[in-house]
Amino acid sequence: MSLNAQLAAFKKEQATVASRNVAYSRPASSTPARTSTPQPTASNDTAKRTHGDAFSQGAAPAGRSEMLSQVNFARGRLKEKITETKSFDEIISFLSLPNDAKKSIPLIKEALKGDQYIEWIPATTTTKETFKYRPIHPVSNAEELKDYLAKRTSAQGILVKELKDGWPDCVATIDELEKERFVLVTRNKKDNSPKMVYPDSPLFHLKVDQDFKDYWLKTKVPTTDIEIRNELEKAGITPTSQVKENTKGNMKKGPRKRPNRRGGKTTNQHMAGILKDYSKR
């Protein structure tokens, strides 16, 4: 078969396949319009629970991100008013939520209750529920710092930057407490600012007379090994660096004792009629 004949056969087969595909294709006009199935209206409690489940499962990332932003903003405002408690209505008022975001108010309330940096104070018979910022360390003045350090069970210090979370202007008070010897402070080499705070007490610091200080400063301490050894020998103390002589006395070797290898009497009761007894020889 020539090349022209092969090309004609290929085009004929391609046209046949195309016509067959068109015959079996679904017309666009015959596709029915898809309608949504009407859903029953849920109650308010069901709607809230659905919103909470969807948020916990990570659904609606855009709404979740917006709600987290509102919670972070509320946390920042509570931190600015760290000594004050705010009701939930006051928090919502300074959030200034748009109308389409007010449906997430119940979720914002639950998120504030579960936030580790926010303290939730439940309502009582006479007061409403309130919220307050919870710092890393519950310290805001000098007396609270001394009590807090005294109640700690470990000797580990506290970072000053953590104290600033609930007490921003604590540096001046820490410097004063250090002068009064109520705290021990380690400082940064760069700017000499306080870095760590440890407990201390004025009772641990003894008053030393000036006569004792002068005597201590006048006392000469040996600086070399030879001077130390000479001072020890003058005091009648044998230095550990002295060479010990290994004295050997007249040690005579005595007769060597041979170990007694003779064992006890051994009998084989089950072979009494076969073996002979040579123990008497």
TrEMBL record:
Protein name: Transcription initiation factor IIE subunit beta
Described purpose of this protein according to its UniProt entry: Recruits TFIIH to the initiation complex and stimulates the RNA polymerase II C-terminal domain kinase and DNA-dependent ATPase activities of TFIIH. Both TFIIH and TFIIE are required for promoter clearance by RNA polymerase.
Annotated source species: Zasmidium cellare ATCC 36951
UniProt entry tagged with the keyword Transcription regulation: yes
Keyword Transcription regulation on entry: yes
GO cellular component, one term: transcription factor TFIIE complex
Biased composition (Polar residues): 27-45
Family classification: Belongs to the TFIIE beta subunit family.
Pfam families according to UniProt: TFA2_Winged_2
UniProt KW keywords: DNA-binding, Nucleus, Transcription, Transcription regulation
PANTHER family: TRANSCRIPTION INITIATION FACTOR IIE SUBUNIT BETA, TRANSCRIPTION INITIATION FACTOR IIE, BETA SUBUNIT
One biological process term in Gene Ontology: transcription initiation at RNA polymerase II promoter
GO molecular function per UniProt: DNA binding; TFIIH-class transcription factor complex binding
